[in-house]
Amino acid sequence: MVPREAPESAQCLCPSLASLNAKDVLRRKHKRRSRQHQRFMARKALLQEQGLLSTPPEPGSSPLHMWWGAPPGREAASRARQHPKAASGNASASRKSTPREFAGPMPTRCVAIDCEMVGTGPRGRVSELARCSVVSYHGDVLYDKYIRPEMPIVDYRTRWSGITRQHMRKAIPFQVAQKEILKLLKGKVVVGHALHNDFQALKYVHPRGQTRDTTYVPNLLSQPGLHTRTRVSLKDLALQLLHKKIQVGQHGHSSVEDAMTAMELYRLVEVRWEEQEASSLQTHAEDRDPDSSTDMEQYMEDQYWPEDLAQGTSRGTGEVQGRRE
Fold this sequence. Notes:
11 helices; Nucleotidyltransferase, domain 5
């Protein structure tokens, strides 16, 4: 029996329905990202009102009035309230002339990472990588895979890691995952909480100047309440600074959620952090001794040699030249 063809009207409707569904998906995704951005900006504004976070410096302002004082930000806000039109005009002009107001990494060069580990070896005391998530500056998931450790798993640590035996069925070998992850991290500024644990699990060392560990955030904010412990957990930082609850429930941590939270914390103090990094780099550059390997050739000149040795070498070269002639 020959199947009847669908009416032309139905055939025409299918592509249009598909395009409408795609547009709806994009529209919902855009709304979700907009709401997330609004929540982030609201938290940032709350910290600024509490004096924990001042506004970015205006173009042309003195470097002394940077992030370390809230009054310049308040003065700028009061000027904006008094002269809204002038403030908006200046803001648009500054946006055109200076797209970025500080010398920090571009968003495309910044990622956040979080890893979950399981226990291997004697009594499960050796931590090995079992899941890794990498997110972009804006919180988009760039990588999220389960990873099979090199040694047999003794303790899944499900209460904290969220890893179970079922997850290992679709896990990829460690060597494959390591290559994929390091390819994403290469040349990037890497954000995370207690990053030394993640890098140790990856068997990797990232350049210190391209590492932003959010355990340092309380020191940047100079918030007395956060200095009760030497190292504040990501969960506590998220609750106190982002008013956000993470790592709740009985299913363990989510590496995606933790990576996104670390990136949000970094973005709260991004300007202050990058200004401090730039100043420390400049200080170290001034104090650093010149590299002897780059100046090796100039020290081979006669003026740096004792006279008797210099004469001996010049006499030797003359004899060699004479023999050649």
